Amino acid sequence: MDKITRMNRRRKSIRKRITGTGERPRMRINKSLNNIYVQIINDFENKTICGLSTNSQAVKDKISAVCRKNTSAATVLGKELAQLAASKGVKKVVFDRAGYKYHGVVKALAESARENGLEF
Q1: Given the DSSP bridges, would you call strands 47-53 and 26-31 parallel, antiparallel or unpaired?
Q2: How many structural domains compose the chain?
């Protein structure tokens, strides 16, 4: 199996078990070649409560323009997301890593969000 097939398999396996509710919405991460995107989603209402990316103005001002997909950018993104979620009334979430392994950028983002008030 190639890398993409393995990731899609993990993604489906994770998604079968995880759903976001009103009390505990789903925090989903997505990585592109240059950026990181995070959303907090209520699956029962099919609504995105809030979302941020390294392209968002609030985050872009605090990270270097050279690399928006490293662990320091993920740490800033996690902090900003936790503050935004708190302002929307979200304190507990279910973490959906979307098939990505829990290390590097994914781990930095999750730990930063935890340190700043989100409960997983």
Answers
A1: unpaired
A2: 1
Task: List beta partners, residue 47.
Answer: 42
The DSSP result for the chain, as a single string, is --HHHHHHHHHHHHHHH----SSS-EEEEEE-SS-EEEEEEETTTTEEEEEEETTSHHHHTTS-SS-SSSHHHHHHHHHHHHHHHHHTT--B-EEE-TT--SSTHHHHHHHHHHHTT-B-
Q: Is residue 120 part of a domain?
A: no
Distance linking the first and last C-alpha atoms of the chain: 31
pTM here?
0.86
- Asked if the model's pLDDT at residue 51 lies above 90, the reply is yes
CATH number of domain containing 53:
3.30.420.100
- Confidence band, pLDDT 50/70/90 cuts, at residue 34: confident
